[in-house]
């Protein structure tokens, strides 16, 4: 879990030491070569960030803040963007058009206040930065009307300040990375159990600002529900909500900042709800010969009130690619967990619902200390390697990316068909060959959150444009069929065209008014959620 | 469930025909007389609303809207305020200082738009009105800087427009009363199962605008979680959020309007999440000799992940007054329900947690079609009669009212002690004799929602002032001990002083900005949540 002594990749996912290499790389490239005979699979090394000849920093901090600031080219390059496919490929090409002038690392909340003060006065844009794992352009300083742009890296604000074991909650600074958070909670026997795929490389503040989804397929799917109170520094002042298990006093103050993606303020601290580690587990993988039947079974479980921790329906392509299982319909990976009571009966009932829809149990583990099943284990290992494999494939000119949504059950069949068709059509047009896969990451009584993967043959030098065309096509299909442009990847700069259409007009007006009030100079993450507004003339 | 052919009380709770009378009244008054020898228990009849000599309406609607408007004195009097103790007593005194000039009943959403347009132009305040069951001054047109005030009664917008049985959701107009909503859903086999104490006399729109709490003690405690999308008419325009089971696209647009109490827009319609009626039930009542042990047991259940539908801890006074059970610590009323699977094991585990804390099962019902237990039944009947009994007691000069909050478990003991002491002290000072009771209406892993009742000897003519003094004392104690000023009664006009202190400053600034944008003339429910802002000079 700990990332000590490893080196973060400046251009790609995670740690340099964990990149796909050796036999893993050979096997991966071999599989692609077999599927795409004749495809150019030349490996493209990332450039040396120090040799990129970045433009010099346009702004200088006041002396009082200089100690927090870095203008080191490698540091600036590493903070220039997130970790989407289009980010990684542009990095590989050495194409760093928008680089922060400075990386600023506050050591206290007062430092955050001071940095916002300075930037407000100097007309400098501020990009709040957690782990930098955005896949929607959320941390890329793609701004124009400012004297410069700084990235506010909150990594030093990384402590668990206080644990309330009675209420099972902790006060945590926002810059803490997932593993370090869990490490600090361990002595209390409590855990947040929020495990997005980016867990190792994303922070509490990032999860909160982007409404991240984590471990749980049902109930507490988004981080929103784990928040007891928030502390936020905005250019107009600092505020903290009262620690409350529930309240009905006006619109929720926290919900305005959850999902605000650094545009309204900087989340510096939160009281988070915790739980004990699970002691009871039960899991199963269920095969279906028919995809609609698998979807119906998953819907029945989502509506049963059984509340599985995991309820991940893999379609046939996803199951084959990431677990090696051959199946015509799909595989449902189910898991239940509890710190208090056995969950075997819940699993048995969920399996019964699957059988009612033609499912056949492939493997099952149950009882106390039961671990994930074989297929689930396979899938989990694959899940954690996916971003690294994506990078390896990007280097050989493949187009590999994901996108996700959520919709109501009544619309899923049409949405799935339209998205698949749009993706396949775009892949044919711009790539020639490729596949699209689908899994459910989360399920609700009223609908699933489908997550799609695209693997297509690219042309080195054009893969960003190829992906952008596929992405636009599937985003249109999602919008046309009532899905959200994002269930848990956030809006950033890249989802804006579809977000703008999805967001009700009165709420857009409200958000604009809030932005103008809390960030009057418009310096906070300009272009995210709302159009960039140049700062007022000095 | 149906209220057909009954007459709503203009001055007090519910239906005239259901008021406390005859032997029920004799028994109630007899009990009070026994407890308070020498107390003046003269019964005070409500005045005839037609004889109240209301001031004439100050505004006239445009001809196009005249058909929707009523200036009938009884109608205006009946819409002048909510159903708090202080409302009922002032009605009994014929003290109707703030009466709407007109009651306007839109028959369509376009009517709502037209009324807001007219009122915006004419500088007339608009009070959105559902069932009128506010206990916080939320529907009382206590406004000054306006040409007049109209009450916008949404009662005609009462249809379930569409049911999506696949996703288990329905599109419902906001003005529907609880029983009529359930009546319309019945053919689908689905139910909202949102049963606040006011169920018969409150509407979907009111529940949404005030973040009402309902039937479920855990998980979906507030109506917020049952909302799929909202349709809102604001003076600045109409908007509708996309129907989504979950989303991470920016801050939740719906959460800004949930709890906005009619100050930002009029909720005209919502897609609501439904479920099938429960087929499996299990319940028990558990006695505790020791209150702290009962609280600890309740906390353990709240943190167990068992998710009881009911988990209502009654303290000794509450148990005695409302179920007749004598106990030194308290009684925990537990119930589980499911439409899918048996819940006996969940009940057994919850009971085991109670026994670990010294609880003894008083009665238990389990298995399919198990109904609530004896004490629970007793309590439920009493619960539904409470507001009617409150009215009967108000008529004989008693001070009878409730208040509620939520806090984290670590703070509950101190909050409970401080609130109890503040109430007892204030009762002694202003009333002489009285009791305070406490129950938990909802419980969360990180804290309970305690609900307090006050029964005190009043002096006819002074009981509102007496209550106001008690209320101020307990509100200060709640604030000092980190509770919310309201868990589910909303803010209205009466909770403003404490809400203003509880609300983080940046959120106050944000809310003010949103109000100015969506309601530029400041006509919507002025004085609720935010200070009344007079309309701009014409």
From TrEMBL, chains A, B:
Q: Which UniProt keywords apply?
A: FAD, Flavoprotein
- Where the record annotates domain FAD-binding PCMH-type, the positions are 96-277
**Pfam families hit by this protein:** FAD-oxidase_C, FAD_binding_4
Superkingdom is: Bacteria
Keyword presence, Flavoprotein: yes
Please give the start and end residues of each transmembrane region.
none
Q: Does the keyword RNA-binding apply?
A: no
What PROSITE patterns does the entry give? FAD_PCMH (PS51387)
Q: Which family does it belong to?
A: Belongs to the FAD-binding oxidoreductase/transferase type 4 family.
Listed PANTHER family: ALKYLDIHYDROXYACETONEPHOSPHATE SYNTHASE, PEROXISOMAL (PTHR46568)
Protein name (database record): FAD-binding oxidoreductase
Per the UniProt record, the source organism is Saccharothrix hoggarensis
């Amino acid at each position: 879990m700990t990332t000590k002594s490893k080196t973060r990749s400046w251009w790609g996912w995670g740690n340099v030491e964990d990149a796909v290499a050796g036999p893993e790389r050979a096997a991966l490239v071999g599989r692609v070569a077999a599927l795409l005979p004749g495809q150019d699979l030349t490996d493209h090394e990332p450039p040396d960030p120090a040799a990129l000849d970045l433009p010099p920093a346009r702004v200088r901090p006041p002396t009082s803040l200089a100690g927090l600031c870095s203008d080191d080219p490698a540091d600036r390059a590493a903070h220039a963007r997130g970790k989407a496919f289009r980010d990684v490929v542009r990095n590989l090409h050495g194409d760093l058009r928008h680089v922060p002038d400075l990386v600023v690392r506050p050591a206290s909340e007062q430092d955050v206040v001071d940095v916002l003060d300075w930037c407000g006065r100097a007309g400098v844009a501020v990009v709040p930065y957690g782990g930098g794992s955005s896949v929607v352009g959320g941390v890329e300083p793609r701004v124009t009307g400012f004297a410069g742009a700084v990235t506010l890296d909150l990594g030093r604000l990384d402590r668990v300040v206080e644990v309330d074991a009675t209420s099972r909650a902790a006060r945590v600074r926002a810059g803490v990375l997932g593993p370090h958070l869990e490490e600090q909670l361990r002595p209390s026997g409590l855990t947040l159990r929020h495990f997005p795929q980016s867990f190792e490389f994303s922070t509490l503040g990032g999860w909160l600002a982007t409404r991240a989804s984590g471990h749980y397929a049902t109930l507490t799917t988004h981080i929103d529900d784990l928040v007891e109170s928030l502390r936020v520094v905005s250019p107009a002042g600092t505020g903290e909500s009262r620690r409350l298990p529930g309240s009905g006093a006006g619109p929720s103050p926290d919900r305005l900042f959850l999902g605000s993606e650094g545009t309204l303020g900087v989340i510096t601290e939160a009281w988070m709800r915790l739980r004990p580690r699970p002691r009871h587990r039960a899991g199963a993988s269920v095969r279906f010969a028919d995809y609609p039947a698998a979807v119906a079974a998953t819907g029945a479980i989502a509506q049963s009130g059984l509340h599985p921790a995991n309820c991940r329906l893999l379609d046939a392509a996803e199951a084959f690619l990431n677990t090696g299982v051959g199946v015509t319909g799909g595989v449902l990976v189910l898991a239940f967990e509890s710190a208090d009571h056995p969950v075997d009966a819940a699993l048995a009932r969920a399996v019964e619902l699957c059988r009612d829809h033609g499912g056949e149990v492939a493997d099952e583990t149950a009882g106390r200390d039961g671990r994930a099943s074989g297929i689930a284990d396979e899938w989990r290992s694959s899940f954690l390697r996916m971003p690294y494999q994506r990078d390896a494939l990007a280097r050989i000119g493949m187009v590999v990316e994901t996108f996700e949504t959520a919709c109501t059950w009544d619309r899923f069949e049409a949405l799935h068909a339209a998205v698949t068709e749009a993706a396949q059509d775009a892949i044919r047009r711009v790539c020639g060959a490729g596949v699209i896969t689908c899994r459910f990451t989360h399920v609700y009584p009223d609908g699933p959150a489908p997550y799609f993967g695209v693997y297509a043959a690219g042309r080195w030098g054009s893969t960003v444009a190829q992906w952008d065309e596929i992405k636009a096509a599937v985003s249109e299909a999602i919008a046309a069929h009532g899905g959200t442009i994002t269930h848990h990847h956030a809006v950033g700069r890249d989802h804006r065209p579809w977000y703008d259409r999805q967001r009700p007009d009165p709420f857009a007006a409200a958000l604009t008014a809030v932005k103008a009030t809390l960030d009057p100079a418009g310096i906070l993450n300009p272009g995210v959620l709302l159009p960039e507004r140049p700062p007022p003339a000095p």
